[in-house]
């Protein structure tokens, strides 16, 4: 955790944060899964959902990288699997999610992004939550025609630390190449290109369609090719 000198924080910002934390104590718990193809807008909407509902955001890829870097027991298991060329097991990923959801910042629930990708993973996630008397509340299915995704993905820039995403055409930062809030540099993900996208879309549709069917009673279909504020409004109604 980075230390913050409160003398450098304005009174207005400090009071707004205190009020937000007080508001969070009155929020109901929510456990949400985001499903959608690359470039569908999950990265744009998840910070809004996180703030509005006082949830933690769990991106399994980021969690794996952090666990490996921190050399946690699960991280060491994951590293061993990756170094041998094997896939990281579902049990390791579920273990990471279980550990993360017990942290204070997840006390009101979580947004899960990038998992589950298969029905087996969804079943294992449900089993883990059921042991704690919990369950997934909503599955937000971000629907965007494949034909629109290439332009979205190839123009995307990301702030690595927060996950905030921008687009050079549709949602540019105030200063090119720089995050609006921190002033830190943005990056282009190496797999944000047309060739990789086509392969990822094929895998996404074949794997994820059964997951959407599995959660059918909790799925909310979002027409995610609309303006950001319209999508946000639909999400607010769904939650």
Automatic annotation (TrEMBL):
Keywords: Kinase, Nucleotide-binding, Transferase. InterPro entries: Adenyl_kin_sub, Adenylat/UMP-CMP_kin, Adenylat_kinase_CS, Adenylate_kinase_lid-dom, P-loop_NTPase. Transmembrane segments: none annotated. Its EC number is 2.7.4.3. It holds the Pfam family ADK. NCBIfam families: adk, PRK00279.1-3. Catalyzes the reversible transfer of the terminal phosphate group between ATP and AMP. Plays an important role in cellular energy homeostasis and in adenine nucleotide metabolism. HAMAP family: Adenylate_kinase_Adk. Belongs to the adenylate kinase family. This is adenylate kinase. It comes from Edaphochlamys debaryana.
């Amino acid at each position: 955790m980075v230390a913050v000198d409160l003398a450098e924080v304005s009174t207005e910002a400090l009071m707004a944060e205190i009020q937000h934390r007080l508001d969070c104590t009155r929020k109901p718990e929510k456990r949400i899964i985001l499903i959608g193809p690359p470039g569908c807008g999950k990265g744009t909407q998840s910070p809004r959902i996180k703030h509005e509902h006082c949830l933690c955001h769990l991106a399994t890829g980021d969690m794996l990288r952090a666990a490996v870097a921190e050399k946690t027991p699960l991280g060491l298991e994951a590293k061993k699997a990756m170094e041998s060329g094997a896939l990281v097991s579902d049990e390791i990923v579920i273990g990471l999610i279980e550990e993360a959801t017990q942290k204070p910042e997840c006390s009101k629930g979580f947004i899960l992004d990038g998992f589950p990708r298969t029905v087996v993973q969804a079943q294992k996630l449900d089993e883990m939550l059921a042991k704690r008397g919990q369950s997934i509340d909503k599955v937000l299915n971000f629907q965007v025609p494949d034909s629109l995704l290439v332009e979205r993905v190839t123009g995307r820039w990301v702030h690595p630390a927060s996950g905030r995403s921008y687009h050079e055409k549709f949602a540019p930062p105030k200063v090119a190449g720089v995050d609006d809030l921190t002033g830190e540099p943005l990056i282009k993900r190496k797999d944000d290109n047309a060739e990789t996208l086509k392969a990822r879309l094929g895998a996404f549709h074949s794997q994820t369609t059964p997951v959407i069917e599995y959660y059918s009673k909790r799925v909310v279909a979002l027409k995610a090719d609309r303006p950001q504020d319209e999508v946000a409004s639909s999400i607010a109604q769904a939650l």
